[in-house]
Structures are given as C-alpha cells and as structure tokens.
Amino acid sequence: MNQEKIGKFISKKRKEKNMTQADIAEKLGVSNRAVSKWENGLNMPDLSLFKPLCEILDISINELMSGEEVNSGEYQKKLEENIINITEYKAKKEKDIIVFFIYLIVGIVLFLIGISSHSANAYFPYIFEISSIIFLLVATYRLSKNLNKFLNIGILILVFIFLFSIIKHVDIEMMNTSHLPPKYYYKKIVTDKCTIYKSLYQSGYQNNDYGKEVYLIIGSDEYEKVLKTCNYK
What we know:
Largest sheet: 4 strands, antiparallel
Structural class: alpha+beta
Shape: elongated
Strand content: 5-15%
Strand order of the largest sheet: 1-2-3-4
Order of helices and strands: HHHHHHHHEEEEH
Radius of gyration: 28 Å
Number of domains: 3
Distance between the termini: 69 Å
C-alpha cells in the first residue's frame, strides 16, 4: 500500500470537487490535520472512513486503495491486490494496538513496584522506575507517532515531567512520614554530626547521634541552619 500515492490521489480528487481539507474534515468528523496527514502520505484514514470518504470524492474503495483511477480491464487485478493490502493494513493496526498495551501495562506495573519500594541502599527501585519510564515513553510514542513531530516530542516531555513529578511527591512523602533518605539525591555531605542528602527536589538531613531517621529540609534558610548545626564548612 503506497500511502504517498494514495494521499496525492485524495488531494487530486478533493480539488476536482472544489473542496477544502476543512470541508472533507467536517463531513467525516475528523480534524483538518488528519486530512492533511492523509494527503501528505503520513497516515491513512481509518478503515471505517473508507466508504464515506469514497462517497464524498465519488471514487470506489478499489481506486482509493490503488491511489489512482482504475479502468475496467485492471479492476479485478487491482481489487485482489487491495484486498490483500487491506488485510495486511488491518493486521498491522491490530498488532500496533497490542504492542502499545503491552508497553503500557508493563510500564505501569514496573512504575508501581518502583515507587512502592523505597531504599537508598538498594538498586532495584531505581531500575524499576527508570525501566518503567522508558516503557511508558515508548508506549506514548507509539500512540502519538502519527502526530506532528514537534507535538509528539512535546507530549513525550509532558509524560516524562508527569512521571517524574509522581516520583518526586512519593519520595518527599516517604521522607516526611517514614524519615527515609531521598532515592535520587545527587550529593551526600557527611560530617561528624550529620549526613545531608541533596536532591533535585528536596533535601534532607540525618543526625548521626540519633539513629538513621532523615528529616526534610524546608527552604534555603533552614538548609543554612542545618549546615551550621552539622559544623559543615
């Protein structure tokens, strides 16, 4: 199935009907961007839209799938080819959906395991969380890959920020309620009196004389006080 050829044919027949992309989009109940993607060969109409699109453009489904007008002599041959193409196209779409859900489910399971496991001394929570983010980003990409490239990148960034914000809030909550160190600290300051953990989102300190409990540091003023208390220079 030649998507580029089909797209040019859709564009040609639309123009012959003196219709705009917006006209086609309105009649089919889709966006102007969707019609533009069809005509540029970036995507294909959904199978459910083949018949109404052909009725609007006054062409047969056989001609739509061929990307050209089909004469009576070639009609049967083209029909057989297009039946095979539609079957393969439908199978590919179904496979894409299955793969998307596999990535999505695996990503969610790994993410839940990762955020429910909190230990600064164990590697498996990091592995689960990082792996889950990769799986979920791949799932998002597969879902939005037919969108505009910049829009796709924007969606991926938003999903990453959303996942990171969940990890951040769970980590802070664990520090605040269970007095555990942050999982993703980038600097560890150790003095005779204290251990300070600096992370991208929240810092915490541990008094070495009173066990291993870690307490949140709120704001820069409190951080400076902790440094003085810990005799850090």
